[in-house]
Design brief:
heterotrimer; A mainly alpha; B alpha+beta; C alpha/beta; A: mainly alpha; Histone, subunit A; 2 strands; 33% helix; C: alpha/beta; Amidase signature (AS) enzymes; 8-stranded mixed sheet; 3-stranded mixed sheet; globular; binds magnesium ion; binds zinc ion
């Protein structure tokens, strides 16, 4: 599978990364280089193989631990807002959104 | 009777499926320890996890899982002992992580069913496709500033159950009945408070239209409709729009739309242009969710009685199906009724609750949570009727006095001397007096004017200030008239 | 003895014996940083005042008889660990000026045990790289150089290049690092020091800026295997704030470094013999195996048949997870925001992310977005997950025949800063020996074992069973003893 320029633009848009028109060709070449190399995976016979999701080295049937339902966090609006590039009072500010 | 939309080319059938987002009742959020209470100061119920700060990780709240399982059980659905969370990736101002943790491929609850009752008394089963757990997004406020939207993350991370129906509904009424029934079940279970105006329940309404006998045509999803009434209106508006599109020779495109409640129309949602490429993949920060069968069984054993079962029980107690339906609509009403009826005549209790009591609620614009008369006092009033302390008609006066004063019915009866007269001698004296004063009418009666019987009873009751036992008064009038 | 000459263990002993103080050690390291960091660029942030204050508090605790296991030891912290009140950049412009209001679990554990933090060290942007040349704070220089070409500046490896360079140059007694595809072991090997990526789940990921969640693990780099063992003991442990953290006791790793390897079966995977690997690396590998046999271990040939697919698998899984993990850098709640007049929200996102992320990060986000996108998920991401399962199975089957696996750590010694920069795939091949342990979730330890003809360090890698870091430490220490690696880089604190 090889990416055309339109797909490169679409992916950049999905990823919300501005791509100047003059960058498209180079990005396309780089991505196609990587994808071409990745392509070798198709040679592996994976019939009947259960995909490995998550990083655990052991296949456990235990599942995840569950937390108690208690309020242990929050009440830190100042800290939550402290790093905001455009703080508007008690809110984060963004350019007006049209739904 | 089938609901259709009449187009220029003939009737169109409407096909509706609902995705209902129900906020889980829990103290803290699905993946963080921040509080979930409604109406708090902006960004005050936000942890760094909910705000998507670098390095933050989700940890699941066991109670939210239990609530989802309870709901699944209440919907007669399959509980999946193995489920998993996935990430749904999209950018939005109030989605701090840039993805929503949801369950895509392996939901916690599988297929189930809900029975709805329609206005003509017929019932219909609506299939449930699945229920999954996911986190809510924050809230954008668009009206605080001329050029900016403001973001409040208090809702971010609150647990939601997304309950997806089969496309089984065929009319706005069915969609409304389904949403009403779902809300009723969740409220009985205590898994969602059902406060639609606070956003605790929102429906995404999937609508398509077709000619009879066709397969499904393209559907559109009307997002975030927040009342039963609006769901019904949105179905109708969207179906009409689609009929117009098809009949104009155009094609309906699958898209996400918004219901404009002011104008009663749906319109395309600009902010959802990536809606078909969410790039779901298994959430690597969370191991699979594995439940034990025993745990599920314990939750099942502790479920409260659900509306269908309760309604059947009320009918078995002698209530009319209509009263049983009305009394079980809200679990608070059912609880009120049960307190009134406990150890008493259920039918009489139902008559009083659905009759005078509901009328008083309406008249006073009060709520069952804040009743003008307590269930205990209403029960006590029924006791006074049962032991003949007061008559039924006098009881209505007492009931009004209870609303006015908030006092117990016994107190009112004593204070106002309303105790019923059951002394036969006193009643006979009163009847004799009425007959003596109305000799002409007695003669008419005796000559065959039977209808005058009620007149003598009424006059006697009036003379006794309403306190005469009605049955005894009847009896004595009959006896003395010979 | 100068304060910077100690091993971490040696410093602890000297502190315990009253021969030095935390303040003295800290001052010595701060002085060395001031002198060498302008050249090496290992530190992004030096927290000198805080370090001295912490050292004084540490000395007071020791005097009060309350010394923790790492009491008074000056360490460097990879700038991927969130540190409360101290700027954390992840080597990216997009986090410029970000000050976390919380402490990562791993660094909190180190502070609990008495460590002193000298500052935050450099890394490839968002830990994506094998050369530490992609940092927004500029490249890190390897303190080593080629004997016959001393003017060519070499990379320290990556992504934990700042950690490895700081420790090798003796600017810190040890450092935290993270490893997603080899980011601890490759720079450790390039800089002639030891480093271990523990089993997935051994160290909490809470508070570490995420790259690829199913692969990321924190671990230490230090000058000896024993120093790594001491550090890992403090860093590791169950954390309820990380759902993937393993609820297992943390063994005495330092004790394991003193275990004999007698009777251990050492697996030698035939698939790790690659065409084009320098003969010196092959020779060093054979030498390492011989050293282990000399100490009573048995070497057995094993097969890990899916090894050749590990890197392409990694370059699907890691970018996919990264594309999602890095979506939160959007210019709304923290970090950089870029707008133009009239920018709407989408434009704000696109400008912020284009300006904030460097070329390699953007490339990986693009790849990751693509392999997850509609129509391609099955062919790429799902396929990679299945191959990943096969790689894990390869190891499970190998454990029937061996107790640990020994391989080269890297396919080459450190390379020049200008080399391999033009072709991403060529750069990716650096991790060919290390990435399998990340995919399978297994512990891997790199230990310096010798020098190449240019006088550059080369390392060997020990891969262990899940949660059996102890055997890695035992085998690694056995190699270390036999190798008697005493060579030192040209740029270091105690050099003239
Ligand atoms: Mg929906
Ligand atoms: Zn949803």
């Amino acid at each position: 599978m090889s990416l055309d320029a339109a797909t490169v633009r679409r992916i950049a848009s999905l990823a919300r990364i501005r791509l100047e028109e003059e960058e498209v060709a180079r990005m396309q070449a780089e991505l196609n280089g990587i994808l071409g190399w990745i392509e070798q995976l198709q040679a592996v016979d994976t019939a009947g193989v259960e995909p490995m999701a998550g990083g655990s080295p052991v296949q456990s049937s235990a599942g995840m631990r569950m937390r108690e339902d208690a309020v242990t966090d929050g009440g830190i609006a100042e800290a939550v807002l402290a790093n905001a590039p455009d703080r508007m009072g008690e809110y984060f500010g963004v350019p007006k959104v049209v739904e | 009777m089938t609901y259709t939309i009449e187009g220029t080319t003939g009737p169109w059938e409407v096909v509706i499926g609902l995705e209902v987002h129900a906020q889980v009742v829990s103290q803290s959020k699905l993946f963080s320890g921040a509080a979930t209470a409604f109406g708090a100061e902006p960004n005050s119920q936000v942890s760094f996890i909910d705000a998507g700060f670098p390095g933050m990780l989700p940890v699941i709240n066991g109670e939210c899982v239990a609530q989802a399982v309870r709901t699944g059980l209440g919907l007669n659905a399959k509980i999946n002992l193995w489920s998993r969370f996935d990430r749904k990736n999209y950018f939005y101002a109030d989605l701090p992580q840039g993805y929503q943790i949801s369950q895509y491929a392996h939901p916690i609850v599988g297929e189930g069913a809900v029975e709805i009752t329609l206005s003509d008394g017929t019932t219909k089963t609506i299939g449930i496709t699945r229920l999954h757990l996911e986190q809510d997004a924050g809230k954008s406020l668009h009206d605080q500033h001329p050029t900016k939207s403001f973001i409040d993350l208090n809702r971010s991370g609150v647990a939601l159950m997304e309950i997806v129906s089969e496309p089984d509904m065929r009319s706005p009424e069915e969609a409304g009945a389904y949403l009403t029934k779902l809300r009723q079940i969740l409220r009985y279970l205590g898994t969602c408070d059902g406060n639609m105006d606070e956003g605790s329940m929102r429906a995404d309404v999937n609508v398509s239209v077709r000619k009879t006998g066709e397969g499904f045509r393209t559907r559109c999803e009307v997002k975030n409709v927040n009342s039963v009434k609006f769901v019904m209106q949105a179905v109708e508006a969207e179906a009409r729009r689609q009929v117009e599109v098809w009949e104009a020779g155009d094609t309906v495109h699958q898209e996400t739309r918004l219901f404009d409640t002011a104008r009663g129309i749906t319109r395309s949602m600009r902010s959802k242009e990536d809606a078909h490429d969410y790039r779901y993949f298994p959430e690597p920060d969370l191991p699979p969710l594995v439940l034990e069968q025993d745990w599920v069984a314990r939750l099942k054993a502790s479920l409260p009685e659900l509306p269908d079962v309760r309604r059947a029980r009320y009918v078995a107690m002698g209530l009319t199906p209509y009263d049983a339906h009305v009394l079980t609509l809200e679990k608070e009403t059912a609880a009120f009724f049960e307190t009134v009826a406990r150890g008493r005549d259920a039918k009489l209790a139902a008559n009083w609750v659905t009759g005078d009591f509901f009328a008083a609620l309406n008249r006073l614009k009060r709520d069952i949570a804040d009743p003008p008369v307590t269930a205990e006092n209403l029960g006590a009033l029924l006791d006074l009727i049962a032991d003949k302390t007061i008559s039924g008609s006098l009881a209505k006066q007492v009931f009004e006095a209870m609303i006015e004063t908030g006092k117990a019915p016994g107190t009112i009866v004593e204070e106002r001397g309303l105790r019923q007269v059951t002394d036969t001698g006193a009643i006979e004296a009163a009847v004799a007096d009425v007959l003596a004063k109305n000799a002409d009418k007695v003669a008419e009666y005796r000559s065959g004017k039977d209808k005058l019987f009620g007149f003598f009873v009424g006059q006697t009751m009036k003379a006794m200030a309403g306190k005469g036992n009605p049955a005894l008064v009847n009896e004595v009038v009959k006896k003395l008239l010979g | 003895m100068r304060g910077t000459d100690h091993t971490l263990k040696g410093a602890l002993d000297a502190l315990a014996a009253g021969e030095t103080t935390s303040v003295a050690l800290t001052e010595a390291h701060l002085e060395a940083i001031a002198r060498l960091n302008p050249r090496l660029n290992a530190f992004i942030t030096v927290t000198g005042e805080q370090a001295l204050q912490a050292a004084r508090a540490s000395d007071a605790r020791r005097a009060a008889g309350q010394a923790g296991p790492l009491e008074g030891v000056p360490l460097a912290i990879k700038d991927l660990f969130c540190t409360a009140g101290v700027q954390t950049t992840a080597g990216s412009r997009i986090l410029g000026g970000y000050v976390p209001p919380y402490e990562s679990t791993v660094t909190a554990n180190l502070l609990r045990d008495g460590a002193v933090f000298l500052g935050k060290v450099n890394l490839d942007e968002f830990a994506m790289g094998s050369s530490n040349t992609t940092s927004a704070s500029g490249p890190v220089e390897n303190p080593w150089s080629r004997a016959n070409d001393p003017d060519t500046r070499l990379v320290p490896g990556g992504s934990s290049g700042g950690s490895a360079a700081a420790v090798a140059a003796r600017l810190a007694l040890g450092a935290t690092a993270t490893d997603t595809g080899g980011s601890i072991r490759q720079p450790a090997a390039f800089c002639g020091i030891a480093g271990i990526k523990p089993t997935y789940g051994r160290c909490s990921r809470f508070g570490i800026v995420a790259f690829a969640s199913s692969l990321d693990q924190a671990g230490p780099v230090a000058r000896t295997v024993e120093d790594c063992a001491i550090l890992l003991k403090s860093m590791a442990g169950f954390d309820a704030k990380d759902a993937t953290s393993a609820d297992l006791p943390v063994p005495d790793f330092a004790a394991a470094t003193r275990r004999s390897v007698k009777g251990l079966r050492i697996g030698v995977p035939r698939e790790y013999r690659l065409d084009g690997t320098p003969p010196e690396i092959e020779a060093l590998w054979q030498q390492g195996l011989a050293w282990l046999r000399d100490q009573g271990a048995e070497t057995v040939e094993i097969s890990l048949p899916h090894t050749e697919y590990a890197l392409p698998t990694y370059y699907i899984v890691a970018p996919a997870e990264a594309s999602s993990n890095l979506a939160r850098y959007d210019g709304v709640r923290f970090g950089l925001r870029e707008t133009a007049p009239g920018s709407d929200l989408r434009d704000l996102y696109e400008r912020t992310r284009a300006a904030g992320f460097g070329a390699e990060v953007r490339r990986r986000i693009m790849i990751g977005t693509y392999v997850l996108s509609a129509g391609y998920y099955d062919a790429y991401y799902l396929k990679a997950q299945k191959v990943r399962a096969l790689i894990r199975r390869d190891f499970e089957q190998a454990w029937a025949r061996c107790d640990a696996i020994v391989t080269p750590a890297t396919p080459s010694a450190a390379f020049g800063m200008d080399e391999k920069q033009d072709d991403p795939v060529k750069m990716y091949l650096n991790d060919v020996f290390t990435v399998t342990a990340n995919l399978a979730g297994l512990p891997g330890l790199a230990v310096p074992a010798g020098l190449d003809a240019q006088g550059l360090p080369l390392g060997l890698q020990v891969i262990g069973k899940a949660f059996d870091e102890e055997t890695c430490f035992a085998v690694g220490a056995a190699i270390e003893r036999a190798a008697n690696f005493t060579a030192l880089p040209g740029l270091r604190a105690d050099a003239a």
